[in-house]
């Protein structure tokens, strides 16, 4: 009689901890962010914008006349960095800052000027240009964006 052998499922080995810098997720994210920023800078320079200024403007083009803290939450910038950035945008005539006299004078409201609204039109081709040079399908980019946002939330939840 033939002896039956039981199939024992293989337990996957514990993944090895990264050893060299190229194996670390933190480095992959950091270096990808640097490359993305450099790529954006080449498209934003003709518009007179830095990458962080562009992020703030993206938030304002989506929703105008908001508080400084709302912008900070949206673009993940601390108040010190954001204050300097907003001062520069105001000096160039792209935004205006004013106290919220009607509700709370401590709050500062940020609004786009006519020039800020025009800049949205001038910058309209930037996202499509970025997508085209990345040579990645929109579905892949959407999936990657979703997964990175999920990771960001996990990282924020793990903060002390």
Automatic annotation (TrEMBL):
The keyword Cytoplasm applies. It comes from Rouxiella sp. WC2420. SUPFAM superfamilies: Winged helix' DNA-binding domain. This is MarR family winged helix-turn-helix transcriptional regulator. Residues 22-160 form the HTH marR-type domain. One of its GO terms (cellular component) is cytoplasm. It is found in: Cytoplasm. Keywords: Cytoplasm, DNA-binding, Transcription, Transcription regulation. PANTHER family: ORGANIC HYDROPEROXIDE RESISTANCE TRANSCRIPTIONAL REGULATOR, TRANSCRIPTIONAL REGULATOR, MARR FAMILY. PROSITE patterns: HTH_MARR_2 (PS50995). It holds the Pfam family Staph_reg_Sar_Rot. Its main location: cytoplasm. It comes from the Bacteria. GO terms for biological process: response to stress. GO terms for molecular function: DNA binding; DNA-binding transcription factor activity.
């Amino acid at each position: 009689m033939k002896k039956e052998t039981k199939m024992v499922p293989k337990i996957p080995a514990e993944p090895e901890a990264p050893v060299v810098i190229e194996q670390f997720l933190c480095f992959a994210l950091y270096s990808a962010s640097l490359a993305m920023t450099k790529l954006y800078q080449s498209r934003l320079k003709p518009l007179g914008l830095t990458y962080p200024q562009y992020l703030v403007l993206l938030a304002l083009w989506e929703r105008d006349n908001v508080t400084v803290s709302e912008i900070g939450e949206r673009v993940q910038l601390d108040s010190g960095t954001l204050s300097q950035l907003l001062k520069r945008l105001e000096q160039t005539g792209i935004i205006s800052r004013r106290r919220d006299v009607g509700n709370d004078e401590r709050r500062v409201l940020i609004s786009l000027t006519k020039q800020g609204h025009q800049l949205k039109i001038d910058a309209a081709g930037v996202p499509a240009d970025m997508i085209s040079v990345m040579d990645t399908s929109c579905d892949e980019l959407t999936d990657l964006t979703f997964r990175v946002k999920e990771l960001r939330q996990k990282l924020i939840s793990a903060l002390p």
